[in-house]
Amino acid sequence: MRKLEPGRIVVASHNEGKVRELADLLGPHGVKPVSAAQLGLPEPEENGTSFVANSELKALQAADLSGLPALADDSGLCVDALHGEPGILSARWGGGEKDFSMAMRRVWDGVKAAGPEAGHDAHFVCALSLAWPDGEIESFEGRVDGALVWPPRGDKGFGYDAMFVAVGESLSFGEMEPTHKHGLSHRADAFRKLVAALL
């Protein structure tokens, strides 16, 4: 398995929250992240049928176009009462503007419609894929379990963070300091596996 050398790496995302979180995770490893948006790279159509498939197509395109190693993330919220939705369509539930206030309301309305016996259990999944310009790629998947809360709490996170409380925690991801969230999130879980294999 190829090791990631210190130097520049493309974070293949136009989501500022994800870029910031991945940059924080990469910082201690001598890797200098630059976002796909900073390089003017296009966003590929995410037409994969799994988190890993979507993260791989983003990483491969960014590595090919930039000539640098590229790290891509595909992640989402999977709600038991909604049979795993929104899942890989998590960002799309916010519409063309990616309005996560609307997306969270849509999730909660679905949970309420499912009835009290459906419960509030949910989990986040994150697939991280690291691709090199020659087409080699490695992928890792992380997960964190928890439950949904309403109304949303906190403004420190992004996406669905404000309505998700991880098992064993009292604060939502939206209320947590980033350093604490980085220790237990789905992205941190996937990143630990990546570091163990590639750094």
Task: Describe the protein in words.
The chain has helices at residues 16-26, 51-66, 100-114, 178-184, 186-198; strands at residues 7-11, 31-35, 70-79, 121-131, 137-148, 164-166. It has 199 residues and is an alpha/beta fold. It has a single domain (7-198), classed as Alpha-Beta Complex (Maf protein), CATH 3.90.950. A 6-stranded mixed β-sheet has the order 2-1-3-4-5-6. Helix 4 crosses helix 5. The protein starts with 6 loop residues before the first strand and ends with a helix. The mean pLDDT is 94.
Please specify the SSE layout and strand pairing.
Layout: E1 7-11, H1 16-26, E2 31-35, H2 51-66, E3 70-79, H3 100-114, E4 121-131, E5 137-148, E6 164-166, H4 178-184, H5 186-198
Parallel strand pairs: 1-2, 1-3
Antiparallel strand pairs: 3-4, 4-5, 5-6
Keywords:
199 residues; Maf protein; alpha/beta; six-stranded mixed beta sheet
In short:
Helix content is 31%, strand content 23%. With 199 residues, it is α/β, with parallel strands linked by helices.
Point out poorly predicted stretches. none
Tell me the number of structural domains.
1
% residues in beta strands = 15-25%
What is the CATH topology assignment? Maf protein
Helix content: 25-40%
Shape call: globular
- Please state the CA-atom Rg, rounded to the nearest Å: 17 Å
